[in-house]
Specification:
The protein has helices at 4-18, 39-46, 121-128, 140-148, 154-159, 169-179, 192-209, 222-225; strands spanning 25-28, 55-57, 60-65, 68-73, 78-83, 93-99, 102-108, 114-118, 241-245, 248-252. It is of the alpha+beta class and 259 residues long. The chain folds into two domains: 4-128, MutM-like, N-terminal (N-terminal domain of MutM-like DNA repair proteins, Alpha-Beta Barrel), CATH 3.20.190.10; 135-252, Helicase, Ruva Protein, domain 3. The chain starts with a helix and ends in a 7-residue tail after the last strand. The protein binds a DNA duplex (14 and 14 nucleotides) through residues 1-3, 6, 59, 73-78, 92, 109-113, 129, 150-153, 156, 161, 168-171, 215, 223, 244, 246-249.
Length: 259
DNA sequence: TTGCATGTTCCGGA
DNA sequence: GTCCGGAACATGCA
């Protein structure tokens, strides 16, 4: 699930349910997913604190709690849920934060990602590593400058969190498909016009998706087609190709996205 | 049983 | 230093 848009959905979800509320207790259901503190130390750091305004940088969710921050990464299968009480917890719920009147559940089947506590901005950056500017607020000049300093393939560049934070496999495929750029094209081979087109589609994909908190599965989106074995291009009807690009399965149209 | 899955990190090699 | 591919991580599903 989680790329930038999904995490943005989680941010809003957290904002709606827990911002400003006092934490009554913290239940660590899977010790391993609390990555940089003991369960006990996380509990004592959070209990009694209030969550401030939820932030997001790339695929990271940042929940200020008192002086500290609770950092969440969702890996490939993470999600948040809210429940009025402790009934019917799921076996993949890894961390539960309890408030008066309900509880926030961090669920993660495959256990990539996890939860960290950061005492300050320095510790946060230690945890997240250096992140590029968030894709949702990246300006055109900055995007152009980042690509100018980059070699290698365009899909790898879009997915590199150090360069731009937030884009993953699905969104990079969606953007390149809309921009009609082959996923293996090298950055250096792209004309300024092509790069502007990629930027334009990046903004469009994020903009059109943001109200859903995820990339839509509509008929005109590549994302919807990639699950089908005999998927065809929503634009031209050609059979879509699947190849490994930058370590992931890229889905693209051999007719629309020529080298 | 095998392969694949929207994530990151680490390693060796060019 | 840069970039790439591959393997690893953990779990479930087709």
């Amino acid at each position: 699930m989680p790329e930038l848009l999904d995490v943005e959905g989680f941010r809003r979800f957290a904002e709606r349910h827990v911002a400003g509320r006092a934490i009554r207790s913290v239940h660590v259901l899977d010790r391993e997913l609390v990555r940089n503190r003991s369960a006990r130390s996380l509990q004592s750091a959070l209990a009694g604190q209030r969550f401030g305004t939820a932030r997001r940088h790339g695929k990271w969710l940042i929940l200020p709690a008192g002086e500290a921050e609770l950092l969440m990464h969702f890996g490939m299968t993470g999600a948040l849920a809210w429940a009025p009480n402790d009934a019917d917890r799921h076996r993949h719920d890894r961390l539960v934060v309890v408030f008066d009147g309900g509880e926030l559940r961090y669920n993660n089947m495959r256990r990539f990602g996890g939860v960290w506590l950061a005492r300050d901005a320095d510790e946060r950056e230690l945890v997240t590593g250096s992140l590029g500017p968030d894709a949702a607020t990246l300006g055109p000049e900055k995007f152009a400058a980042l690509l100018d300093a980059r070699r290698g393939g365009i899909k790898a560049a879009l997915m590199d969190q150090h360069l731009i934070a937030g884009l993953g496999n699905l969104m990079s495929d969606e953007i390149l498909w809309r921009a009609r750029v082959h996923p293996e094209a090298s950055v250096g081979s792209l004309t300024p016009h092509r790069r502007q087109k990629i930027y334009h589609e990046l903004r469009a994909v994020i903009g059109e998706s943001s109200r859903y908190g995820r990339v839509p599965h509509g008929r005109r989106w590549l994302t919807r087609m990639r699950d089908d074995r005999d998927a065809s291009c929503p634009r031209c009807g050609s059979r879509l190709s699947r190849t490994r690009v930058a370590g992931r399965t890229a889905c693209w149209c051999p007719r629309c996205q020529r080298r």
